[in-house]
């Protein structure tokens, strides 16, 4: 059975293939090529995440990053779709789901919702299995990060899935309601594109 993380990896690769390298994304300052490069680095060259900023090894890391980008957009998308080398621990089903399901869902929407022809009335369909997984991952960690960033006490509600409240009790309250995937987008900083209802309460 294909995991939700693997399904979202394929969805992300398909979204990237449908746009040019310089297409916008919801990740500030990143075009589609930058996002594809990010996935490849995250999968197989995590040393290049911070390496370019470090003394001594920084120059070598920057050269490696430049070489990776020079392989071309389609090559990067192919590598992002293929995933990490077989011996990497994130290939274990539990780690793959934990590390990648929400990550790849969000980044797929980063591509789709940034395009001028995106119709917010007709977002892509979300399988029930994925929706429940996103609620679980959001309510266990990512909603709390969103509340911390907003410096509010936020009650996240998704009819049919649950309610969870995050943030210090002394902070001003806020209620955010929507489907699990929309709450996740809102909590991860995509407020303008997330289809949620918000009330000060």
Quick synopsis:
This protein is 52% helix and 9% strand. With 201 residues, it is an alpha+beta fold.
Helices and strands in order, then pairings?
Elements: H1 4-17, H2 32-44, H3 47-50, H4 58-69, H5 73-82, H6 93-112, H7 128-150, E1 153-158, E2 162-166, E3 173-177, H8 180-187, E4 197-199
Parallel strand pairs: 1-3
Antiparallel strand pairs: 1-2, 3-4
Helix pairs in contact: 1-5, 1-6, 2-5, 7-8
Word description of this protein:
The longest helix has 23 residues, at 128-150. The protein contains 8 helices and 4 strands; from the N terminus they run H-H-H-H-H-H-H-E-E-E-H-E. The protein has 2 domains: 4-112, no CATH class; 128-199, 2-Layer Sandwich (Nonspecific Lipid-transfer Protein, Chain A). Helix 1 (4-17) packs antiparallel against helix 5 and helix 7 packs parallel to helix 8 (180-187). With 201 residues, it is of the alpha+beta class. The termini are far apart. The model has no long low-confidence stretch (mean pLDDT 91).
